[in-house]
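In this supplementary section we document a worked example of the pipeline. Step one takes a protein sequence of length 220 as its only input; no multiple sequence alignment statistics are reported here. Step two produces a three-dimensional model, which step three serialises into structure tokens for compact storage. The input and output of this example are shown verbatim.
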Amino acid sequence: MERSSLTGKRDWAGWGPVGTMRCMSSRFAILLALCCLSAGAQEHTPLIYGLGTYVAPHDGRHDGQDHGLQAATYCGGSPESWVRGSAALNRETKWLSLTMELETDSPQAGPKGQLSITLSKGCLHPLRGVCDAVHDPLVKLYTVETDEVSIGGRSRGDTGIIRRSASVDIPDNVARQVTHIAVQASCTGSSTQWSGWTSLQDAEDAFEATGRPAGASQLQ
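The serialised model returned by step three reads:
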């Protein structure tokens, strides 16, 4: 088993013209240099964060229910439930960190679900959010899938929400190329089991995930 990027730029426009900056005290100049260094360090952060889909009815009641995660899928009203997830790749350690959350409002049953993550390269200069398929295409490199997990009905006084985390080791030659991470949360059924978390791969109180080159069969 084998176990997106945030950048920030300081806006110095409010500090006045260059001629004024030359007259700053040495202490102030040092402070400015440190700030610029900090901004530059942010430009080279090794973390790449995922982008996900939001699948739910557009009726107002189901809007904004992502709970701060990148992907969210509404599983329906019987039981009223959700599957959510996020992913982030550290290109220095080669670890892909995963978060999965399941929610139910029903005391009788909860959702089953899993996450699918696609690591890709390219599409560095999208035009109006669309990749240039000829000159700057998005090329899939690697896919990661979690095992199917589930929660049962909501206990009295409980929130009905359970969140767990896991990590997957990404091959070095893949991790160095990744520029995009796509995250999809899927509902795969429902469970009337006890109220706790269950992994169908017997990962106690957690979940497991496996990765493979894009296009490769799970049987390979």
